[in-house]
């Protein structure tokens, strides 16, 4: 009796090439919070930044004014530091993803190699370029070669297999490209909302000072106003940085995604053109 054995093909594994990003961003946030606390206590809260002692101490420079912003200041500082840290992380990760050379030149060379039918050269270009696009192209070219020697499938089935390999290889790369982007996007809104929270708290203090004893306590009034204005400025500045960072890296990711689609389409079209007579 003949037995049918199913061959199980292990999923392709993404090659580890350089810095891939920080997977546990929570530790970045914790580290930024600790740094923010230290800045608030020891740098902004330095006695040299104030005139007088205790709660009645008046700020004599901008650092002291920022310190008077209250407990919301280190929270907003944490958000700002997180944006800066993750921006550096995304910059390094995407630089690795783009590869060593010009991405547009790499795509042009790959298309030229495909048009001439030189698969060996195309693979050499992938090995030299590295990065996400090169990983996807390399995996798709391997499937391309496999389909050329495959005799049990028709042309349409081979094209489907190549497209499927392209999609699977792309799916392996996309999580690395988009890692931590949602955190930056969240801080776009969270920075402004936290600043508004500090503003409301500061205004409550100001009105409380005005209502105390029918007159205004100048120290409490100035503290409340400082808290309101400083937190508003910090919150807007944090959201501003987050918006720039998110849009910049989103544009970079879109360029990589477009490059993946373009070169993948070229590979499929090349196979279709070179095997027109195949049933």
Q: How many separate domains make up the residues?
A: 1
Q: What is the total tally of β strands?
A: 2
Q: Biggest sheet: strands, sense, closure?
A: 2 strands, antiparallel
Helical element count? Answer: 9
Strand order of the largest sheet: 1-2
Strand content: under 5%
CA-based gyration radius = 29 Å
Task: Give the arrangement of secondary structure elements.
Blueprint: H1 25-44, E1 50-51, E2 58-59, H2 62-67, H3 72-98, H4 103-115, H5 119-129, H6 131-149, H7 155-178, H8 181-211, H9 218-274
Antiparallel strand pairs: 1-2
Structure description:
By secondary structure, the protein is mostly helical. It has helices spanning 25-44, 62-67, 72-98, 103-115, 119-129, 131-149, 155-178, 181-211, 218-274; strands at 50-51, 58-59. A two-stranded antiparallel ribbon has the order 1-2. It is rod-shaped, with a radius of gyration of 29 Å.
Structure keywords:
279 residues, mainly alpha, two-stranded antiparallel ribbon, 9 helices, 75% helix, rod-shaped, disordered N terminus
Brief summary of the model shown:
Helices cover 75% and strands 1% of the residues. It is mainly alpha-helical and 279 residues long. The protein has one domain (25-274).
């Amino acid at each position: 009796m003949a037995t049918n054995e199913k061959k199980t093909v292990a999923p392709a594994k993404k090659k580890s090439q350089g810095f891939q990003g920080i997977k546990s961003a929570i530790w970045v946030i914790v580290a930024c919070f600790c740094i923010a606390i230290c800045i608030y206590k020891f740098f902004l809260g330095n006695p040299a930044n104030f005139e007088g002692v205790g709660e009645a101490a008046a700020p004599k420079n901008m650092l002291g004014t920022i310190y008077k912003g209250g407990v919301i200041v280190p929270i907003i500082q944490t958000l700002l530091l997180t944006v800066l840290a993750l921006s550096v992380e995304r910059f390094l990760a995407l630089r690795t993803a783009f590869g060593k050379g010009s991405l547009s030149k790499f795509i042009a060379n790959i298309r030229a190699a495909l048009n001439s039918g030189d698969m060996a050269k195309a693979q050499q270009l992938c090995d030299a370029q590295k990065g996400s696009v090169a990983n996807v192209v390399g995996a798709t070219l391997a499937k391309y070669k496999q389909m050329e020697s495959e005799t049990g499938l028709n042309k349409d089935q081979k094209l489907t297999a190549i497209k499927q390999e392209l999609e699977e290889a792309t799916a392996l790369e996309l999580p690395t490209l988009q890692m931590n982007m949602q955190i930056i996007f969240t801080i776009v809104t969270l920075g402004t909302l936290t600043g508004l929270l500090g503003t409301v708290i500061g205004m409550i203090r100001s009105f409380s000072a005005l209502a105390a004893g029918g007159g205004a306590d100048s120290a409490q009034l100035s503290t409340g106003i400082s808290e309101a204005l400083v937190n508003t400025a910090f919150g807007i500045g944090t959201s501003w940085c987050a918006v720039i960072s998110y849009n910049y890296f989103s544009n970079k990711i879109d360029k990589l995604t477009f490059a993946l689609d373009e070169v993948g389409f070229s590979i499929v079209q090349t196979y279709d053109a070179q095997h027109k007579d195949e049933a």
